[in-house]
């Protein structure tokens, strides 16, 4: 057995752990300098140009660039007219923003379970969770894995629901030929560092619905009416806030959209390389291909088989970090999901101003509880699916080789230890308490 680094052996990788940076080339630099020279740093022409570029790229009527993916989700829900007393069906296998955006409108996130292979919404459970209070569904194409959108759209139509595609991790994925984000009423994307295109912070919405577009445009800028132009500036007739992006981010974003297909293809190439390298690795299941189209890759997700490896994900993560491929400091934030319904926020129904509002609020006629067992498939996925690596376009072949070698080394060692009856207990009590 090759001695694991955590047992005192040599790590697979002795140079620096892999760190992601933004893709920022001469084109982005020049575009940014142009905005700087124009001295128009806030939202202006460069943002309009970015929005036009996005809309053209997707082949949709409208795009609005905003401060981030979370605010993009919020303006869409606001434009749908979601409010107190309403329910919105969300997946528990996502980043927290997909569901806290619902709370921003004082509505109730209702979690439906996921499908164990694709890790996206299980439509049968979605249907079971629909009530007279349901107003929208948020399918999330998690790490580029597709949702079966045709039956989801049919279900939404039957119950008169809005569909908000959270495509923050899946720019360029195609469902039956259609770009993800263009199928629901609104599609939402994030461009925060690490996502498929980057503007540091940033996000955007896309839609073909002009009425929703006008409303969303307003919500990103103090609910101003775009049609009134500057005259609307001090006429505030709705609750409102400021989610504007800057021209600086937009100028970078336009260049990122020009290189988007290269970034997407490079990620797929990296994922396929890892797929090949790990094809015969025991104790893990590789990410699913989609039966409904062409997925993309944000991270490369592997499912660990605890019955083969003889241990849980935390021990695996700690041993893998010791092999030097990633920094253990970032363990909890990027290596797995937490079932959203088990976040303390939901279990404790922690509401605004220290109350339990909106969960327990006179406007809400339903009853909601969040507990273990609510979405068992998602809970199991969160225990077993490890976010192995971002397949970032700047990764070098050597990085991918190191990642694959480390996984093979750790899985083989764990299997041998299991066979020899050697207990595996690397994660500290402190790590178990916080992760
Ligand atoms: C699925 C998903 N939804 C929403 C967001 C929120 O995007 P942002 O971080 O830009 O607010 C993210 C990313 O962070 C995400 O991964």
Kindly describe this structure.
The protein has 435 residues and is α/β, with parallel strands linked by helices. The protein folds into 2 domains: 26-258, 3-Layer(aba) Sandwich (Aspartate Aminotransferase, domain 2), CATH 3.40.640; 260-337 and 381-434, Aspartate Aminotransferase, domain 1 (Alpha-Beta Complex), CATH 3.90.1150.10. The chain has 16 helices and 13 strands. A 7-stranded mixed beta sheet has the order 1-9-8-5-4-2-3, sandwiched between helices. A 3-stranded antiparallel beta sheet has the order 7-6-11, with no helix packed on it. Strands 10-12-13 form a 3-stranded antiparallel beta sheet. Helix 1 runs antiparallel to helix 8, helix 2 (45-58) packs parallel to helix 8 and helix 3 (69-80) crosses helix 4 (97-104). The longest helix is centred in the last third of the chain and has 24 residues, at 397-420. The chain starts with 25 loop residues before the first helix and ends with a helix. The site of pyridoxal-5'-phosphate has 14 residues, from helix 3 and helix 4.
């Amino acid at each position: 057995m090759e001695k694991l680094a955590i047992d005192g052996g040599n790590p697979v990788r002795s140079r620096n752990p892999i760190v992601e940076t933004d893709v920022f080339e001469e084109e982005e630099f020049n575009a940014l300098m142009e905005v700087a020279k124009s001295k128009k740093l806030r939202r202006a022409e460069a943002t309009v140009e970015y929005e036009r570029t996005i809309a053209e790229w997707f082949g949709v009527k409208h795009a609005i660039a905003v401060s981030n993916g979370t605010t993009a989700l919020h303006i869409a829900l606001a434009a749908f007219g979601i409010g107190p007393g309403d329910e919105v069906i969300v997946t528990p296998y996502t980043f927290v923003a997909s569901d806290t955006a619902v709370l921003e409108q004082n509505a109730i996130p209702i979690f439906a379970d996921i499908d164990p292979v694709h890790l996206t919404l299980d439509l049968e459970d979605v249907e079971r969770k629909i009530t007279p209070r349901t107003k929208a569904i948020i399918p999330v194409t998690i790490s580029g894995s597709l949702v079966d959108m045709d039956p989801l759209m049919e279900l939404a139509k039957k119950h008169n629901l809005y569909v908000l595609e959270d495509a923050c991790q899946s720019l360029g994925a195609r469902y039956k030929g259609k770009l993800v984000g263009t199928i629901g009423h609104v599609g939402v994307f994030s461009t925060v560092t690490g996502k498929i295109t980057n503007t540091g912070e940033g996000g955007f919405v896309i839609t073909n619905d002009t009425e929703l577009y006008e409303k969303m445009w307003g919500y990103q800028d103090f609910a101003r009416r775009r049609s009134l132009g500057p005259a609307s500036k001090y006429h505030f007739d709705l609750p409102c806030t400021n989610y504007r992006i800057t021209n600086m981010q937009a100028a970078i974003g336009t260049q990122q959209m020009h290189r988007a297909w290269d970034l997407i293809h490079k990620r797929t190439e990296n994922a396929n390389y890892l797929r090949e390298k790990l094809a015969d690795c025991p104790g893990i299941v590789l990410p699913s291909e989609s039966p409904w189209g062409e997925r993309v890759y944000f991270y490369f997700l592997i499912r660990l088989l605890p019955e083969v490896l003889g241990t849980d994900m935390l021990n695996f993560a700690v041993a893998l970090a010791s092999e030097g491929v990633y920094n253990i400091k970032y363990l909890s934030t990027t290596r797995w999901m937490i079932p959203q319904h088990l976040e303390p926020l939901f279990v404790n129904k922690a509401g605004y101003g220290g109350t339990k509002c909106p969960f327990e609020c006179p406007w809400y006629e339903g009853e909601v509880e969040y507990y273990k067992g609510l979405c068992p498939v998602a809970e199991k996925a969160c225990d077993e699916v490890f976010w192995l690596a971002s397949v970032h376009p700047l990764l070098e072949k050597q990085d991918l080789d190191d990642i694959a070698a480390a996984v093979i080394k750790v899985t083989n060692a764990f299997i041998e230890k299991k066979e020899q009856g050697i207990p595996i207990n690397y994660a500290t009590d402190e790590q178990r308490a916080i992760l």
